[in-house]
Amino acid sequence: MTTMTKEDIKEIKKLQERMLTTEKNIVEINDKLNGRLIPEYDKIIRTFFSVNNREAVTSEAPFYVYFNLPSELAKIVYIRVICNIISGTPSLDLYVSENDGFQYSSLIGPFTADFSTDITGNITKSGDKLLKIESDANATLDIQVLIKIDIKAR
After folding, report:
1. Which of 34, 62, 70, 96 is the most buried (most CB within 10 A)?
2. CA triplet 21, 27, 33: central angle to 5 degrees?
3. What's the gap between Cα 115 and its chain centre?
4. Residues forming a β-bridge with 145
């Protein structure tokens, strides 16, 4: 039978402490790899929302889609516009306004069929946004704007 000395007991306690520290480090690394929030990043929340609208568009009456990005915006992950043409065969021009319609981006398009386009690069800040779709013919459009952003938690 072997007896343990005080030094042996101290060594075992040190090894147990190292093991606990290693376990904590492994958990933290796994959290980072799996995209979980860790204390240094816990003030940012990733969220997703969509804006849906179905409406008629004519050559004289554009189709407008309004949405707002909150002032707590930390990062735009992506903003995508999906358009399904329900009736008609129009040629569609898409414009993006970051200031509620006072100025618009350069033309995105033209589109002559259903489309899905990324407009992330056209939007740089929080606030009111307005999409304008102009058409050369009568049509009914089904528009969906998919928005994924990071916001600062209060």
Report:
1. 96
2. 135
3. 19
4. 51, 81
Tell me, what's the pLDDT at 78? 92
Look at the chain and count its residues: 154
Sheet holding 127-135, edge to edge: 63-69, 127-135, 92-97, 108-111
Is 118 in contact with 126 (CB distance < 8 Å)? Answer: no
Paired tokens of 67 = 């949405």
Against a cut of 0.85, is the pTM above it?
A: no
pLDDT band (50, 70, 90) for residue 39: low
pLDDT at 10: 84
**pLDDT band at residue 42 using 50, 70 and 90 as cut-offs:** low
List the beta bridge partners of residue 127: 69
Whether domain 43-152 has CATH 3.30.365.10: no
From the list 73, 72, 50, 19, the residue with the least C-alpha distance to 147 is 50
Mean pLDDT of the chain: 86
Burial annotation 29-56 (CB, 10 A radius, 16+ → b, else e): eeeeeeeeeeeeeeeeeeeeeebeeebe
